[in-house]
Design a protein that fits this description.
This protein is mainly beta. The protein contains 4 helices and 33 strands. It has 3 domains: 6-47 and 281-347, no CATH class; 94-115 and 122-268, no CATH class; 356-455.
């Protein structure tokens, strides 16, 4: 028996709009991690076509999807004998779409945004740096020996160049994950005969996201320098320095800090904390399995939502046949993936563990009540076929299975009736046939096939 996958918990309705789910399938779609439970809704198709690129902002508010429509095939008319049967394919027409994740709205990108991706030689390998502003990213290109930085705003659809000609071609670009600033710098090392004299000269520029320069300067640090991370407040760049104090001795590691507000570069031996994204309670896992399609067996990838902490419900299946592009929103309310060129989304709904446990108890009771009613009906049909005799304890399983045709319906069922003739029972509505034990009590079916929940004493 199938039913709509709906579950009422603390005033919240959990429902799968794309397919019907049994109560057991609903329970199997939950993952428990920490103090929360997460329900994975059935995947829904967000975008069809051939998606080849997906990029998502660090805060999960926007995504960019690039793809193309399937090329049309058209036969070429025969103009010479060697052209007979030749088929021509129209080159694919790429498109760019913007997904406003928070509002679950998919729109065709503006022409400037589309041109940003599609006018490149290889749209599928486009690299971008997301900023702290929702839907805003930076990218760069080199022309005439100069690096140019572009600022793209997905919310407004505008793309503009910032700081034209300001940056040297070898400058890395580091964007703050929390503040509207970015830093470009070049590191030039001298080439001394003695490695103890090695020095690195940093030339840096601190800019706002509109290209306005707020600080610039130069600093010389002993040894090699690599700036790689940001402090937890997103205001200072942190990197490592390595220098030689004595010939033949191991290199000494230090820490270099560039303060974007003052423009000062300092060196220290202390360990400086760096920014890292909050650790989610959930993770995604791809696992290959064999699937049979007709006479062919092939490997497919299944996508699972997995708890990072130990629990009795550690994972739930999201979808099968996943190709690439798996993405879990930082807010842990959506999962997206690509399958056969199509983009799918599964919504994730969260509840506290107390509400979930109450819901599980109610759902398990509902499942058990459905099972005992089915078993009761099967026993009564058996009785009709066998002149009102009921199955015995010895032949109960083999006797009722032809009427159930589903082994799972007997899982957990305890057959308690010890008589044989149904006619000899004076009060069938009060005579227990069997039960399934659930939390807080038993789901009992009686000889007249009605069932009720009997709480523990």
């Amino acid at each position: 028996m199938r039913c709509l996958a709906a579950l009422f918990i603390a005033g919240t309705l959990f429902v799968s709009p794309q397919q019907e789910r049994s109560p057991q399938e609903v329970l199997d779609s939950f993952v428990v991690s920490g103090e929360n439970a997460y329900y994975v809704a059935a995947p829904r198709l967000l975008l069809s076509g051939n998606v080849v690129l997906a990029r998502f902002s660090d805060d999960g508010s926007y995504g960019v999807l690039v793809g193309y429509d399937t090329p049309r095939e058209s036969s070429i008319k025969e103009v010479a004998g060697d052209l007979a049967g030749v088929v021509a394919k129209t080159p694919p027409k790429y498109w760019v779409k913007v997904w406003d994740v928070r509002h679950d709205r998919l729109t065709l990108a503006s022409k400037p945004v589309s041109d940003f991706f599609l006018l490149r030689e290889d749209p599928e390998s486009t690299e971008i740096d997301w900023t702290s502003e929702p839907g805003v990213f930076l990218s760069s290109f080199v022309s005439d020996g100069t690096q140019h930085v572009l600022r793209c705003n997905l919310a407004t659809g505008l793309v503009g160049e910032i700081g034209s000609g300001l940056f040297a071609t070898n400058e890395p670009r580091l964007v703050s994950p929390l503040k509207p600033v970015f830093v470009t710098y070049s590191a030039t090392r001298n080439k001394p005969m003695d490695p103890r004299d090695l020095k690195t000269t940093l030339e840096f520029t601190v800019c706002r996201l509109d290209g306005t320069v707020t600080k610039s300067g130069k600093a010389t640090v002993r040894g090699e320098v690599f700036l790689t991370s940001w402090t937890p407040d997103g205001l200072s760049l942190v990197g490592k320095s390595r220098r030689v104090e004595a010939l033949g001795a191991p290199k000494i590691n230090g820490t270099v800090v560039l303060d974007t507000r003052s423009g000062q570069v300092t060196e220290t031996q202390e360990t400086i904390a760096v920014y890292s994204s909050p650790e989610p309670q959930l993770d995604l896992q791809l696992q290959a399995s064999q699937a049979k399609l007709g006479d062919t067996v092939r490997l497919v990838q299944n996508l699972w939502l997995v708890a990072r902490e130990q629990s009795d419900r550690p994972r739930a299946l999201i979808g099968a046949g996943v190709d690439w592009g798996v993405w879990l929103a930082p807010s842990m309310d959506k999962v997206a993936f690509c399958s056969n060129g199509q983009w799918f989304v599964s919504d994730i709904l969260k509840m506290d563990l107390k509400s979930f446990n109450a819901a599980v108890a109610a759902a398990e009771r509902s499942i058990a009540m459905m099972k005992v009613k089915q078993v009761g009906l099967a026993v009564n049909i058996y009785s009709t076929d066998y002149d009102d005799f009921l199955p015995t304890q010895a032949n109960f399983h083999d006797g009722v299975m032809p009427y159930l045709k589903n082994e799972s319906l007997l899982q957990g069922f305890v057959y308690t009736f010890t008589g044989s003739d149904a006619k000899s029972v004076e009060r069938p509505a009060e005579t227990e046939m069997g039960y399934i034990k659930v939390r807080g009590g038993r789901c009992v079916v009686y000889l007249d096939s009605h069932a009720r929940f009997v709480p523990d004493p």
